[in-house]
Design brief:
single chain; alpha+beta; seven-stranded mixed beta sheet; O-acyltransferase_WSD1-like; transferase; endoplasmic reticulum; O-acyltransferase_WSD1_C; diacylglycerol O-acyltransferase activity
Amino acid sequence: MAAIPASNPLRIRTSRSVESIEGFNKGDDDHDQPLSPMSRLFHEPGSNVYIVVTMGFKTKIQPHIFKRNLVHTFLNNHRFSSLQVKDKENGSMKWIPTHVNIDDHVIVVKLDSNMESSDKFIEDFISNLSRSPIESTKPLWDLHILDIRTSEAEGTCVFRFHHSLGDGVSLMNLLLACSCKTSDPEALPTLPGNIKKSGATNSSPWARLGVLWNSFVSLVMFASTTLFLKDTKTPIKGSKGVEHRPRRLVIKSVSLDDIKLVKNAMNVTVNDVILGVTQAAFYFYLHRRYCKRDIEYNNFPDNIRLRSILFFNLRATTKIEDVTGTSRHGTWGNKIGYALHPFKIGPKKDPLDYVRDAKAVMDRKKASFEPLFTSFFANLVLKLFGIKVAGKLNHRVFSNTTLWFSNVPGPQQEISFFGHEVVYIAPSCYGQPNALMINIVSYKDKVTFVLSADEETIPNPHELCDDLEESLRIIKASVCSSHTTSKL
């Protein structure tokens, strides 16, 4: 793990005004620099995506502490203290440093003490946030403080970032660099899996041939999806224009120990278990929706094509670094690729087959260059044909699939953010041309499923959350039963 750069940012004190600050480091060379092609792509129709991170705390939130520390952390990163200005002549966009008023970005929400349900209020509040963009007259981020007690937390805050600022790993890095271990206030949190990635290579000639074959198949599927191949129209497949509709964000946490029990018993990865649980939950949810008489889907079809855009972090490391975004490791920005991940929707006699199916698919994805190819292809189209063509192709691939799926590693220990102990972290997105996105984040001994659902398509996302929890219970019970039987 990276040591705290220079000094712990939570302990910085300065005479500079809290209300306004330039936000650029001395000697920063990013003045008037153009946005990267990937950042620019997130401004195109169908890809104009915002990242929302909800955090719950054990104590009431003190807004003045948040504001004071944000000045010395977020605003040290030029992306958070710059406007994104479009050139009227050539259509390009540049980072233009600006004078930041912290009160324009930190909003303390006025609350009704007589509200019926604080949990429902938080959901409705985030849904309303997803109806509108952040004004381009200020840097594209804000923080909403809702100092109200819910079933899980004493206070809640909602960060909102335009995706052009960075991807999920960048923003999780930023939030954790502003945090510390609750048990050791001088230490940064640690993330699981902070090791250099080896890539999809193997010394065996047959393994190399397998990588080439898997990559070729992925290329064909990618091209087919771009041109004509669409997912089956199911009750969770969004209709045209779904990216413009508001989202409801719902959360379900499960035990990390339960997932690890299945992982160890089946000799698979945590991701394999999570994808297997998700596949089982899709079957249970869709079966129930198809069996209802009040919708047009009255028969459960065979051979459902249901795929997710599965995002991969292309960085060599996920270690936590400084908040300035100037690290030599290049952790900032949108350094992501994606793969088309098919879910096999149907009943299983053995619930463990859901996990086995997921492992088989993921083994092929990891033994290919698909995530690298999609990133390379996106950049190639940008350079050859421009941002408009690239945006339309991206939108076509995304809208021809059913959902987005992302897994962001979270801290392994309990953390404090600006001196407030964190109960949960729940990242998600809105603005994507799919009716559903599932984000997975681990924190301490929990794994949290965060669903971003278009309620016009999925009117009951809480039911899908319950199906995820029940699917894990069934798979865990099957593992325990198999283990008992083998002993006998």
